[in-house]
């Protein structure tokens, strides 16, 4: 049994190790209202476009296994709970180092591959712990900063938190925006805020969380995406995972088309991260299919695409075990931490 790589020119994506590919760097450009005011979004068309994905884009057997391994490599394995402990974070890091059981990896024909998740995402309090636990693995630590999840701390405080996380070894910073700037149409204020965060990140890779469930309309989502990219966001991300509504396929369609249009206008490449509510392998397959159709194979690699998730990994591993053995294991057989 062998899960092969068919990344270029094929229907499936395999298990090649892309984790060490360089992140894109998106430099800030001068603020302009023109592309923001030009944004138009057709809600019914977006819903129609994404509603057919589940039935129209399906893959089976070894093809499905290959896609699921790729989804696994694109996970930001995350713990953002009030009861997090250093021990839990270390166990999560151990899972990130070896997300697939050795017997399953060998049965898939991938025993000679180094397979890891895309990153480990934690609060600032646990950045140093995660960096130590992941030493030598090449797996970056992502820190949620800027007053996560509400983002309502004073800006100076938020910038200092970014700097502290970078000093502790975080290579990626997930910031949250002030939703009020979007809801009141204060695009200059949003641009200034995100740009200040970008400067505080230094060499760290910056993902900007739009908290799309709080933004009310898809048009606001598209406009916030544009402003965040103009201000230098290396990734744009849907949600904190704490909103009532988190990642959805229509929101994803709007955001990744903004990424595509931004690249056409500026030549700069921006990554994408859906987060919150993506907990099944079936969900992950739909997101991967949409990314492939809209942005191409380059956005099926962890340097340009991530899932913000924790329970997703357990279901992916469970589905891969079913592919290998023909039997479904209980979720307790694939504990995260």
UniProtKB/TrEMBL annotation:
Membrane-spanning segments: none
Pfam families from the UniProt entry: DeoC
UniProt xrefs under InterPro entries: Aldolase_TIM, DeoC, DeoC/FbaB/LacD_aldolase
GO molecular function, one term: deoxyribose-phosphate aldolase activity
EC number of this enzyme: 4.1.2.4
Entry keyword set: Lyase, Schiff base
Pathway annotation: Carbohydrate degradation; 2-deoxy-D-ribose 1-phosphate degradation; D-glyceraldehyde 3-phosphate and acetaldehyde from 2-deoxy-alpha-D-ribose 1-phosphate: step 2/2
Catalysed reactions listed for this entry: 2-deoxy-D-ribose 5-phosphate = D-glyceraldehyde 3-phosphate + acetaldehyde
Entry-linked CDD domains: DeoC (cd00959)
UniProt keyword annotation of Metal-binding present: no
Family: Belongs to the DeoC/FbaB aldolase family. DeoC type 2 subfamily.
Identification of the protein by name: Deoxyribose-phosphate aldolase
Organism: Mesorhizobium retamae
Gene name tied to this protein: deoC
């Amino acid at each position: 049994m062998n899960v092969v790589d068919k990344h270029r020119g094929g229907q499936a994506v395999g298990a090649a190790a892309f984790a060490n590919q360089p992140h894109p760097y998106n430099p800030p450009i001068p603020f302009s209202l023109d592309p923001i005011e030009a944004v138009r979004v057709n809600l019914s068309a977006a819903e129609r476009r994404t509603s057919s994905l589940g039935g129209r884009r399906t893959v089976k057997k070894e093809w499905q296994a290959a896609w699921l391994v790729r989804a696994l490599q694109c996970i930001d394995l995350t713990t953002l709970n009030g009861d997090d402990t250093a021990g839990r974070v270390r166990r999560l890091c151990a899972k990130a180092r070896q997300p697939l059981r050795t017997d399953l990896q060998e049965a898939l024909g991938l025993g000679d591959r180094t397979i890891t998740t895309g990153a480990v995402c934690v609060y600032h309090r646990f950045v140093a712990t995660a960096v130590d636990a992941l030493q030598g693995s090449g797996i970056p630590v992502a820190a949620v900063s800027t007053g996560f999840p509400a983002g309502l701390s004073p800006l100076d405080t938020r910038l200092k938190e970014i700097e502290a996380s970078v000093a502790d070894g975080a290579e990626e910073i997930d910031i949250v925006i002030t939703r009020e700037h979007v809801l009141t149409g204060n695009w200059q204020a949003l641009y200034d805020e995100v740009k200040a965060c970008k400067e505080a990140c230094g060499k760290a890779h910056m993902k900007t969380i739009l908290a799309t469930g709080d933004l009310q309309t898809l048009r606001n989502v598209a406009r916030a995406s544009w402003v965040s990219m103009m201000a230098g966001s290396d990734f744009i991300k849907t949600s904190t995972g704490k909103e009532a509504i988190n990642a959805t396929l229509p929101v994803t369609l709007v955001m990744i088309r903004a990424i595509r249009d931004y690249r056409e206008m500026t030549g700069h490449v921006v990554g994408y991260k859906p987060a919150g509510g993506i907990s099944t392998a079936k969900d992950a397959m739909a997101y991967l299919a949409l990314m492939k159709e809209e942005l191409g194979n380059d956005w099926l690699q962890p340097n340009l695409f991530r899932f913000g998730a924790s329970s997703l990994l357990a279901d992916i591993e469970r589905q891969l075990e079913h592919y290998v053995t023909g039997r479904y294991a209980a979720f307790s057989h694939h504990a995260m931490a």
